[in-house]
């Protein structure tokens, strides 16, 4: 039985982590591979997402990054502790790099599966089949230069979309790497379905700048003020460094009864909250694919998203399964959300088409694309 080793930063909450665990669980169903995960950090003592019991997990560090501790010491004026945490942080970064490098060198495996570009760059082996899945898509000079030096020993580079493939083919210097498009997968859903009748808008993601939830809050506040629809709610699921900032923004707007920030929850609870909603909104500045967009459509939600460079435009059929907003036009997004708020029949029709359109991303269909590579 051949062995696949997955290189991961951690097994905590996150879209990349959720997608990788879903893929690993699908491999486990096939019963053709021995599966293991090498994770740099042990943050919560287990996987946040349900992991097949046959999968072996090895942690390189019994703790995670200390960014929050550094920030707290600085804010509290505890400068000696702050210096200590800075030194600890430097040690963590050092260990993160060298422990993974040593682990990769000594792995006894057939396939090495990298989930991050920094791990891909550390792979220098020719005796294994090396696969890298790029979840990021950042079209800037710094990232492109990093790409050019990171995949020299990678046999297969897996990207999410056709547009991403075109750009990676242009950016890469090596002919060794075969670039293939395999989108993220979602689990088949027959349990949860939205009626599109509840007066709730939802969004899900890390509370970081790239998701631009501040803009979503601003747009929603204008909708409430203009339409006087105080009975509509906005729910944002996720954790991140901007939570205090977003909470303060909500407080200033006087919308604490209308907008709720909900901590990250397990997949089952995400689906439940999606199905209790009537509209999903994505305000991200960049996305490689957007797993949660597909999950929202999978429960029959109409979706509204900015038409960023890759990702949403390959998932949403504009005006049929959702709405794509050009050029981050805030007024256009507000108008589309208002149109859905005002028309229950439209919400149900768009949501029904959305549900049908994402069935091609079901894990039972996507796993076959992976098995073609691993045959």
Give a description of the structure.
- It is globular and about 65 Å long.
- It has a seven-stranded parallel beta sheet with strand order 3-2-1-4-5-6-7. It has a six-stranded parallel beta sheet with strand order 10-9-8-11-12-13, with helices on both faces.
- It is α/β, with parallel strands linked by helices and 375 residues long.
- Helix 7 packs parallel to helix 8.
- Helix content is 43%, strand content 17%.
Q: Tell me the series of helices and strands, N- to C-terminal.
A: EHEEHHEHEHEHEEHEHEHEHEHEHHH
Q: Biggest β-sheet: count, sense, barrel?
A: 7 strands, parallel
Strand content: 15-25%
| Class by alpha and beta content | alpha/beta
Assign a percent range to the helix content.
Answer: 40-55%
Could you tell me how far the N terminus lies from the C terminus, measured between alpha carbons in angstroms?
12 Å
Mind telling me the C-alpha Rg? Answer: 22 Å
Q: Quote the average pLDDT.
A: 92
- How many distinct beta strands? 13
* Main sheet strand line-up: 3-2-1-4-5-6-7
Q: Count of helices?
A: 14
Principal-axis shape equals: globular
Unreliable parts: none
